[in-house]
């Protein structure tokens, strides 16, 4: 295999190209802790504030931030099962972030997240995949995708599908079948025989947090804010296999939506040290 020249390697790793993940500044811990306290005061459960914080931190490409967040979420618990469940939820949220901010950040963040977990937690994490498609399950994958798409976008689901198809005929097909069906909608096995389960309400929180923290996609943020609300309007929040999300209905209100967005903004502010999102800030000017 050919080798890269020294000059090429230097260019790939040049600081102005921002090639590395984002460190976790000391102040981010206080932000996570504040959000935990605020959530408790507003009767918002751990799963909700942890999900929004994980999705935002993933989008900001900060594996160190994920480790800090995990430590805060488990620091008052001596229960190994709770710690394992926390790690399972965080990495499942991280997986779903692929649909909002891409594969590379999920690869980098989840790899570093696992490496930073205690060995007794790592050894207890699920190792059985649940999204392997086959002739036997492809129909259920497609059905889950169509159902989630309708739940989030009804009564405009068909209109939106047609609009996206004008841009490219495969665009809505890929989104509904492969993102909504294979990724966003939970396989039946999740949370039952293996791994953690995010569920309908928390998936909308992942969407809002991930999109808000990357910036530039206001229409999609709006769509998924409505998607969160529709989980309670259409009853999908209590569909078979769904677990209650403490504070979820409040998060689907105006006041809750504002707290959710402002919480995301505060994490972005802390991780970036006031520089804004790391998702697409552009290449720095060469000095």
UniProtKB/TrEMBL annotation:
Top-level taxon of the source organism: Eukaryota
Alphabetized SUPFAM superfamilies for the sequence: AhpD-like
PANTHER family per record: CONSERVED MITOCHONDRIAL PROTEIN-RELATED (PTHR28180), PEROXISOMAL PROTEIN 2 (PTHR28180:SF2)
Protein known as: Dol-P-Man:Man(5)GlcNAc(2)-PP-Dol alpha-1,3-mannosyltransferase
Species of origin: Lachnellula suecica
